[in-house]
Structures are given as C-alpha cells and as structure tokens.
Design brief:
Blueprint (H helix, E strand, L loop, with lengths): L12 E6 L2 E6 H5 L3 E7 L5 H19 L5 E6 L3 H10 L6 E4 L4 H6 L2 E4 L5 E4 L2 E6 L2 E7 L10 H7 L1
Parallel strand pairs: 3-4, 4-5
Antiparallel strand pairs: 1-2, 3-8, 6-7, 8-9
Helix pairs in contact: 2-5
Length: 159
Amino acid sequence: MTITVGSDLPEVTLFRATGDGPQAVSSKEFFAGRKVVLFAVPGAFTPTCSAKHLPGFVSKSDEIKAKGVDEIACLASNDAFVLQAWADKENAEDITMLSDGDLAFVDATGLELDLTGRGLGKRANRFAMIVEDGKVTHLAVEEPGAFDVSSAESVLKQL
C-alpha cells in the first residue's frame, strides 16, 4: 500500500555520508518537530535526476526555505558515498542527501520503482513530499518516465 497525505512516515534507517563514513539516520528523528521537503530520484547521476530534478531544488532552495521549510532532503537508492559525490558535483550543499540503499523507506511507503530488465533493479520512484513533524502533508508521485509534479517549482506552489 502506498503512503498517503495524512500518514505518518515509517520509522526506518537511512544513511548519509560523513567524514567518518556512512552515518545512520533515523527517519523518526530526522523528520520530528520540523518541516521538511523530501524528494526522491531513481538514481544519482542519471539523466533526468542530474539535468533537472536535483538542480531544480538546488536553484530554488532559498525560495523553498523562505516558505518555512527547515530542510530539503534528496532520497535515492544509491549508497551514501555515491550521493555525496553527486552532491559535490552538483554543488548541492544546501540539500541533505539520504541513502535508501536497502530500500527500507521506499518499501515501507510503497514508493518503489522496479527497473529490473533495464539494468537498474529496484529503486525509489520519483516523488516529492512535504513532511511536517513526521506526517505527510503533500505527496506528488510521478508517472513512469515523467518529471513534473515532483519538481522544485511544483513543490513551491504547494508551500
């Protein structure tokens, strides 16, 4: 079953890169008591993700945060090291990169994209959500191959 507006986020462990290696991040603690825009991409360094999705949030981060957002996070099924390399390449220092390499989050939310047969395996679907104190207040999931409702511009209209 796919998560919906009004649902609490599942409690899972995600990871982010640090100077000391991957650091576990509790989803419950990460989203508690604040407003977070979370967007997900099928993979770092992939065409739409690198040309449009992440760069849109990088360029609009100040506008998004001006709407009362405490943090913008990007979730992908890649490992924390790959996400950090991608963030460095894209100058995404204002975006928190969250690795869901075990698919814990996407499995628990029903937001999985199966690209088996295309060489990519199971991934996060492309989506964007607004989360307030661990509760989903907006969710926009893209149709396969699309890029519209999860863009930074679309999220800005929802804030």
